[in-house]
């Protein structure tokens, strides 16, 4: 079994299509098919079911996919360690970040990294807090940035910034002219919430628990997977939402939504690293920027 065979297998498995995998790898279709056939023949397994022109992973293929990805991650890490022997930080840097961090806090810091170290090949993946923590734990990310609570006890967590939630509503909502609302009245309105697993959702749940309430008590209208989707839904309805002050600053300034404070609904932005994995110069360079006093002083 070779690394090239594993790369080809993963490309086909992820696309469920031989031709598209061949195009992505810049190989011929026959070369891709031959690599898969050789892998199956050598180990006496069937990785794909072939039905006409379509293919689908077998149960064996699905199980093997996770192992193949883990092997390639380790191979990439080994290559990265060799590249890291250079004096100047360079090579691959995989960053996973939750949506609010990735959209509103992280971009200027990535621009600064690029300006200081153009040899670093950065790859940013956006997911919710749970997905980011999983990626750092499993080695799919070199570091992660989240705004919610993390269940992975083996990860190192460092607070790099702070954020707060605000109550969001349309400009014609009956509460739009208020300066504050009693917490007990939140249960009288319909809500549009971020999905379970997101940092925004977990922070709202934590804040409500501190008020002696539960998110289950809020009449739920919708659950949506992004801040932008929640904002647009709230702006065209009489529902409420709780979002990061960073996420709503521009829409609120433009006057197409209204916000009210949620006293005490503050949360940290946290940097996640896996202490069991090698920390390259590229990782160290980004950590230095993320924790730099100059950025913290100008943090919006």
TrEMBL record:
Pfam families: HTH_1, LysR_substrate. GO terms for molecular function: DNA-binding transcription factor activity; transcription cis-regulatory region binding. Transmembrane segments: none annotated. The keyword Transcription applies. InterPro entries: LysR_HTH_N (IPR000847), LysR_subst-bd (IPR005119), WH-like_DNA-bd_sf (IPR036388), WH_DNA-bd_sf (IPR036390). Keywords: DNA-binding, Transcription, Transcription regulation. The keyword Chloroplast does not apply. It comes from the Bacteria. Residues 1-58 form the HTH lysR-type domain. PANTHER family: HTH-TYPE TRANSCRIPTIONAL REGULATOR, HTH-TYPE TRANSCRIPTIONAL REGULATOR CYSL. Belongs to the LysR transcriptional regulatory family. This is LysR family transcriptional regulator. It comes from Paracoccus thiocyanatus. The lineage of its organism: Bacteria, Pseudomonadati, Pseudomonadota, Alphaproteobacteria, Rhodobacterales.
């Amino acid at each position: 079994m070779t690394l090239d065979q594993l790369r080809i297998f993963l490309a086909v498995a992820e696309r469920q299509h031989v031709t598209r995998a061949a195009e992505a790898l810049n190989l011929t279709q026959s070369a891709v098919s031959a690599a898969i056939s050789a892998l199956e023949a050598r180990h006496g397994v069937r990785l794909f079911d072939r039905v006409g022109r379509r293919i689908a992973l077998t149960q064996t293929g699905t199980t093997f996919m996770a192992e193949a990805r883990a092997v390639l991650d380790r191979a990439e890490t080994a290559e990265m360690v060799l590249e890291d022997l250079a004096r100047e930080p360079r090579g691959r840097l995989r960053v996973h970040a939750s949506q609010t961090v990735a959209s509103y806090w992280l971009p200027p810091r990535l621009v600064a990294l690029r300006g200081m170290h153009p040899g670093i090949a950065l790859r940013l993946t956006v997911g919710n807090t749970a997905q980011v923590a999983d990626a750092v734990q499993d080695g799919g990310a070199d570091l992660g940035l989240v705004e919610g609570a993390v269940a992975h006890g083996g990860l190192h967590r460092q607070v790099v910034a702070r954020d707060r939630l605000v109550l969001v509503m349309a400009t014609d909502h009956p509460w739009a002219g208020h300066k504050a609302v009693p917490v007990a009245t939140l249960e009288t309105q319909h809500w549009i919430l971020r999905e379970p697993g997101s940092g925004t959702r977990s922070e709202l749940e934590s804040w409500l628990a501190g008020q002696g309430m539960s998110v289950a008590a809020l009449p739920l209208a919708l659950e949506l997977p992004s801040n932008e989707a929640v904002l647009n839904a709230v702006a065209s309805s009489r529902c409420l939402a709780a979002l990061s002050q960073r996420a709503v600053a521009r829409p609120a300034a433009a006057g197409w939504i209204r916000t009210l404070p949620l006293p005490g609904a503050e949360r940290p932005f946290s940097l996640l690293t896996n202490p069991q994995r090698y920390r390259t110069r590229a990782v160290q360079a980004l950590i230095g920027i993320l924790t730099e006093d100059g950025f913290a002083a100008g943090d919006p």
